[in-house]
Amino acid sequence: MTDRPFIIAGAGIAGLTLALTLARQNRAVMLIEKRSRIDELGAGLQISPNASRILIGLGLGPALSRVAGKPDELIVRNGKNGTTLTRMAQGQSMRQAYGAPYWHIHRADLQTALLDAVRSEPGIQLSFGRAIAGLQQTATGIRIETETANGTRTTLEGAALIGADGLWTRTAALLGDASEPRFTGYTAWRATIPMDQAPDLFRANATGLWLGPKSHLVHYPLRGGRVLNIVAIVSDRNAEPGWSRPGDKQSCEARFNHWAQPVRDLLSTVPEWHIWSLYDRPPRPNAARGRATLIGDAFHPVLPFLAQGAAMAIEDTAILAAALSSHDTIETAFKSYVANRAQRTGRVQREARFNGQIYHMSAPLSWARNLKLRNSSPTSLAQRYDWIYGFTA
């Protein structure tokens, strides 16, 4: 299509994966990032088979296998009394069923592996400390304006622009959609602790999910089982934009003071919490305009109740690259990509929202939920998500 670079705004998981994918197609790439460096706070991610197979296809399998955990199972418990409601096999069962692993991975470890691969590609130019500030589409390409923290502006030219700049994207506004996400009424508290400080119940190689009224808790091991990742999500009225802010330890523990003793014991071991308010929006209907488009959270943020946010962004990169290979023009490729992704990502968004309602049910609805889970088999629970995990880009 062109030898000019594809400019990607945002060097998070979506942007790095897309840069690597396009470079493997022998396309020139310019990746710009507003931060001065990639420095993520500790947090875990779940990478299901629909996304891990894409990363493996990019040659990242060996690097990620060394740092990713492979949980044996998902265990769902009643947060009020600690009883087990159901289990779902993961581990080898997932690999056999879907041909790819289910990974737990530290966000920083995934970004490090992606960044190392990106830096090894001569066709990728990586530039930090620049934010996108303007866009002009020409007859043969795009012209963007970037701005540094001290106000210095630079004009760059390329073949196309892809906004991978997250939920609070600037790129979408340049495409004519300045609408903002809405607060969902949920706040997530996250923390990591050394595994040897966790109560014995939480040291299993498993994904733990505890359900309770207006709240739920997720935990799983990271970094070879040396670290336990903990995410507590509660219904909340207060909201602040942003990925992370300090949380008050006593406030978090108070939200769970009527839960089962093992949960209270776990929360008491956490020295500090980081909080983020959960925002949401439907897929943007105009996510492609000429030679510009969006991927990941900039296009379709996904609430964490389905563990598919990172996976959907990774899927986007594969579908977008495939569209560029199968269409004669960038404009038609971008339109095809958006049309392709809108239905699937919209369904994932709806399922995630629905899970949030199910997880946070209060009595008497929670009694019916718990009974249904007790009567479900590990196989039936896994089959419910065949349409997600079995997807091949």
Outline the structure in words.
The chain has helices at residues 13-24, 49-57, 61-67, 91-98, 107-119, 171-174, 249-255, 261-268, 309-326, 330-359, 365-374, 378-383, 386-389; strands spanning 6-9, 29-33, 44-47, 73-78, 84-89, 103-106, 124-128, 131-137, 142-147, 153-158, 160-163, 182-194, 206-212, 215-222, 227-235, 245-247, 273-280, 288-289, 292-294. By secondary structure, the protein is an alpha/beta fold. The protein folds into 2 domains: 6-66 and 102-180 and 281-355, FAD/NAD(P)-binding domain; 182-280 and 360-389, D-Amino Acid Oxidase, Chain A, domain 2. The longest helix is centred in the C-terminal third of the chain and has 30 residues, at 330-359. Helix 1 packs parallel to helix 5 (107-119), helix 2 (49-57) crosses helix 9 (309-326) and helix 9 (309-326) runs antiparallel to helix 10.
> What portion of residues belong to β-strands?
25-35%
Rg is 21 Å
Main sheet: strand order: 5-4-13-14-15-12-17-16
- Determine the fraction of residues in helical runs and give it as a percent range: 25-40%
**Molecular shape:** globular
How many beta-strand elements?
Answer: 19
Mean pLDDT: 93
**Given this structure, which CATH class of the largest domain is correct?**
Alpha Beta
What is the CATH architecture annotation of the largest domain?
3-Layer(bba) Sandwich
**CATH homologous superfamily title of the largest domain:** FAD/NAD(P)-binding domain
Give a short account of the largest sheet.
8 strands, mixed
Distance linking N and C termini: 22 Å
Structure class: alpha/beta
Number of helices: 13
Uncertain spans, ≥5 residues at pLDDT below 50? none
The CATH topology name of the largest domain reads: FAD/NAD(P)-binding domain
Number of separate structural domains: 2
